[in-house]
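Side project, low priority. Logging it here so it doesn't get lost.
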Amino acid sequence: MKRYLLLTLSVFLFGCSTTPESNNIHDSTPEPISTDKSGSEDVVKIDEEIKTDDKAVAERPKESQPVIKPTKSVKTSDGKLILGEQEWVYIKGLNINVKARIDTGATTSSVSATDIEKFERDGKDWIKFKLAHNEQSSREYSLPVERWVKIKQSSNVNKLQERAVIVAWVQVGDVKVHTEFTLTDRTHLNFGMLMGRSFFRDIAVVDVSKKYVQPKVAIK
């Protein structure tokens, strides 16, 4: 009888002593959800940092490429000037540089002028005028008239406009040419000077995909 009681008591005590240990192990085991949640937050933060960096790079203003100005005349292998759609033209008699549009469809060159007035000197036709464009005007110039031309207006083909033609020395790149210009009011147009075929015929080729190929003449 004593042996039975001792055995029962031993089993009971052993069971009581192991139960708390089982509870302690369970309490100390970290929940798998908590671990996964922590890892997920780290990934999100990394992704956010990458996106932020990418956004900063995207919003960073692009550095403008430096404009390389030509320092010498650009020519073809046979020595002809290469002209862009727009070029600087130096007028020697006026000692100024003018932005000009190179127009392969125009025969004669033209320059913007206002206050145009015809007069006679020594029995010959002369013209006085002011160069004007972009709300700016030059002093008055007087030059002999080379000839007169009649121009059809695109807005009214039945109306002819008489224009004076003058001759002036101009320079583009290192080429100097004595060429004709008609005087007309171009203040409403983008360019105060238009260079036609009579200017670049036999001395230049035109590449309309380029602009300001030739160097600007230094004014002395």
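Brief comment: The mean pLDDT is 76.
Revisit when time allows.
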